[in-house]
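Thread: assembly with ligand

MN 10:42: here's the input set. Chains plus the small molecule as SMILES. Want everything predicted jointly, not piecewise.
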Amino acid sequence: MDDVEASYAMEQDPDVNRYTNDGGVKTLQQIEEVISTGPLMDYETYGFGRFAIELKKDSKFIGFTGLKFMEDLGRVDLGYRLVKEHWGKGLATESGVASLRFGFEELDLDEIVATILPENLASANVLSKLGFTLEEELTMYGVPQQLFSLQRAAWQTKQPPIHV
Ligand SMILES: CC(C)(COP(=O)(O)OP(=O)(O)OC[C@H]1O[C@@H](n2cnc3c(N)ncnc32)[C@H](O)[C@@H]1OP(=O)(O)O)[C@@H](O)C(=O)NCCC(=O)NCCS
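BT 11:07: finished. C-alpha cells for the full assembly:
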C-alpha cells in the first residue's frame, strides 16, 4: 500500500491509460481498492501477482509488471505499466524478462499469455522482444484484443539476450 500515491499519480496520465482498457483515470480510493483486491489478494490466493517496479538507485516506484492468474481465461497473464518519463528505456522488456524467468523457473508454469489492444504498438513490440507469438484475435470485455502466448519450451530455447 506504500505505492498508492505514486500509482495514483501514474494513473492520472491519459497517455498511460490510452490502451489499458480498464476505465482510465482512477481516484485515490479506487487505486487503494485495485491494489488490495488485485496484487495483494493475488499473492495470498495464488502465491504470485503483479509486482511494483522500482528504480534500483533510489527504490522509487515507476510502474508495475508481472504475472496474474486471469480467472476468465484460466491462464497466467504478463502485464506491465510504466510512468511516461521512463518509457523507451527498455524497462518493460527488462522487467518482462524477470517476470518470465520467475514464472517459468520458480513457479514452473508451462505457458504465459498476454493480451493487448492491437493498436498498442509499443506493447506489441515488448511482447515480440520477449518471444511471444500471436495466438488469437478475440473480443474481451467488449473490445477487440490480441492474445499472445509463450510456451516454456520456446522460452528455454530462445531467451532474449537481456540479463537482469
Ligand atoms: C507499453 C509500455 C509498458 C512499454 O514500456 P517501455 O519500457 O517503453 O518498453 P521497452 O522500451 O522495453 O520497449 C518498447 C519497444 O516498442 C517500441 N515503441 C515504442 N513506442 C512505439 C510506437 N508508438 N510504435 C511502434 N513501436 C514503439 C520501442 O522503440 C521499443 O522497441 P525497440 O527496443 O525495438 O526500440 C509503456 O509504453 C507503457 O507503460 N504504456 C502505457 C501502459 C500500457 O499500455 N501497458 C501495456 C498494456 S497491454
